[in-house]
Structure formats: C-alpha cells, structure tokens
Amino acid sequence: MSSSFDRIYEIVRQIPYGRVATYGQIAMLAGNPRWSRVVGYALHVNPQPDVIPCFRVVNRFGEVSKAFAFGGENRQVALLEQEGVEFTPDGRVDLKRFQWDGAQASQLS
C-alpha cells in the first residue's frame, strides 16, 4: 500500500494554495479512479500534514471530512478559509470556483 499512498501524497502536494480537489479526482490522477477510499485512508494517516495539504481534499459534493484527522471538520474549514476558499450557505466548497483542474499534475506510473 505504501507505493499507492506515495502516489496519492505526490498528487496532493500539487494542489495549489486556495484550491481543492476531490477524493475521486486524486484517485484518478494517482492512476486508479477506483481508489477514492484509498485516498481517504492515505490522508487519514498522512505522515507529514505540514507538507502534504490533505485539508485541500473534499468529497465530490464539496463537503469537508467529518473525520478530518488533524483537528476535525471545523479545523479543515478554517484552514481552507485561511487560503481564501469560500463556502456556500449550506457549508460546501463551491467546486466550480475553487476546484483545481489538475491539468499540470505529474502522474506517476
């Protein structure tokens, strides 16, 4: 599993400041569109949260994780807001405005 986690971490490191990506998007960029849950597991055990910005990953609806490993969902919201990411009245990230397109992500094989 470590090589798949390493691939996931490499992609997450590339998410720009002020942008978010979805679990499915990271899975696809890491080489397997069926890895959404694997992405979640990898981010939950993130060995370097100061280097690998797992707080920039949200679900496909733009919702933050209820089980954010590094301080809970309120901490994830606060970190995103510090970067200028805005939330809709129902508490979701506006993916049309803030989702990273991943176009320049280096895919690992």
Molecular structure report:
It is a single chain. This protein is mostly helical. The protein has a single domain, classed as Arc Repressor Mutant, subunit A (Orthogonal Bundle). The chain contains five helices and two strands, in the order αβααβαα.
The helix/strand class is mainly alpha
H/E element sequence: HEHHEHH
- What is the CATH level 1 assignment? Mainly Alpha
- Beta-strand residue fraction: under 5%
Could you give a short description of this structure?
This protein has 109 residues and is mostly helical. 39% of the residues lie in helices and 4% in strands.
Topology record:
Layout: H1 2-13, E1 21-22, H2 23-29, H3 36-44, E2 57-58, H4 72-82, H5 95-98
Parallel strand pairs: 1-2
Notable features of this structure?
Arc Repressor Mutant, subunit A, 109 residues, 5 helices, mainly alpha, 39% helix, globular, two-stranded parallel ribbon, 2 strands
